Amino acid sequence: MKEMAGIMVTLTAVVFPLHGGDVRAPSAVFNQIFEVFLLLGTAVGVVVVAYTMYHALKYRDDGSEEDPYADKVERPEMGEMPTGGTGGRKVFYSFSISAIIVVSLIAWTYSQLLYIEQGPDPAQEEALEIDVEGYRFGWDFIYPNGHTTNTLRVPQDRVVRLRVTSTDVFHNFGIPELRVKTDAVPGQHTSAWFTANETGTYTAKCYELCGSGHSLMTTEVIVMPQDEYENWYAETEGPTETETAANETGGGDHQIAPATVGGAPA
Ligand SMILES: [Cu+2]
Question: What is the CA(248)–ligand 1 centre distance, in A?
Fold first, then answer.
């Protein structure tokens, strides 16, 4: 199955070519799966409905004749098995075409999801690795230099790998627009990855009911042009003032005052 998936990935790359060495973003992959299913579903629907309508009209009883096909077809009597026909050719064709469509869809979708699961080749693309820690009620984003913020800033067109965990109860970290979603489980790390092809502000939320402040676990994800990001990152070091203040007042327990809940700007 894996070899087949590899072939399908290559085929997809040929059919849907990318601009020079780009990594396909999860959002692009999921959108493409949706489009392919929508297109095929519509095509199959149109064929089936058109075929049904055609026969319903062709063989309708318009009351003009008693039985216009009485001398043309041999109809079985009640309780009698039909004879003649074309040896099941229609059944064979419709079954084969359906089988080919369904099996191809399964194989292709599987190959796409395998790509999402594994992520782009690390040799091809150096990822930015960020630790994400969920707590009641907020998110900490810890950069490779130790800088910790409540707002996730990432560069455009770069693979971002998230290592997600929780410091208290089950949470679930998700950025719907970028098609990122993974559990945040205390004592464990789960991973997710994405690339954002367009700059802008996205929203990250908690998708696991985790207590009275669950709905406050909303924060911004800011996708910046690469040079802007580099400038911003060069100026960061260690935990921010917000974070330090929060740790001091809350004894490191993340008891952030309501005013700062929801992602104070870093
Ligand atoms: Cu939560």
Answer: 22
Sign of CA dihedral 28, 29, 34, 40: positive
Higher pLDDT, 211 or 257: 211
The alpha carbon of 205 and the centre of ligand 1 are apart by a number of angstroms equal to: 8
Residue type for 20, please?
G
- Give 87 Cα–ligand 1 centroid separation in angstroms: 61
Domains, the chain: 2-118 (no CATH), 128-260 (2.60.40.420)
pLDDT at residue 3 above 80? Answer: no
- pLDDT of 157 strictly over 80: yes
Residue that has been written with the tokens 């070519």 in this structure: 17
Confidence check: pLDDT of 108 > 80: yes
Cα(110)–Cα(116) distance, rounded to whole angstroms?
A: 10
Least confident of 9-13, 28-32, 100-104, 235-239: 9-13
| Residue 90 alpha carbon to ligand 1 centre in Å | 55
Q: Ligand 1 centre from 255 Cα, in Å? A: 14
CB neighbour class for 96 (10 Å; exposed up to 12, middle 13-18, buried from 19): exposed
